[in-house]
Design goal:
The protein has 91 residues and is mainly alpha-helical. The protein has one domain (2-90): F1FO ATP Synthase, CATH 1.20.20. The protein has 3 helices and no strands. Helix 1 (2-43) runs antiparallel to helix 2 and helix 1 packs antiparallel against helix 3. The longest helix is centred in the N-terminal third of the chain and has 42 residues, at 2-43.
Length: 91
């Protein structure tokens, strides 16, 4: 009975670790966006304002992805509804 609860909790922790991996990979994506924007500005300085605006939109979208990964990890660890349902089923 408790072995199956341990499996459910282990799966929740594994899912939380995977979602936190998203936050780690977000850093590499944001670095790529910034490096490409700097290279583009160096090639065409007259388009710097346009490139900078697009870069900030890309960085905001990348950061949002990392925040969603953190949110999912917190939910899986502390407020997982599936664990509550499983505990109620055990009685």
């Amino acid at each position: 009975m408790y072995e199956s609860l341990a499996i459910v909790l282990a799966a929740a922790h594994f899912a939380a670790a995977l979602s936190l991996l998203n936050g780690l990979l977000t850093v590499f994506g944001q670095a790529k966006i910034a490096a490409t924007a700097i290279e583009s500005i160096a090639r065409q300085p007259e388009a710097a304002d346009s490139i900078r605006g697009i870069m900030f939109v890309g960085l905001a979208m990348g950061e949002t992805s990392g925040i969603y990964g953190l949110l999912i990890a917190i939910i899986m660890l502390f407020a997982n509804p599936l664990v509550d349902i499983f505990v109620r089923m055990l009685g």
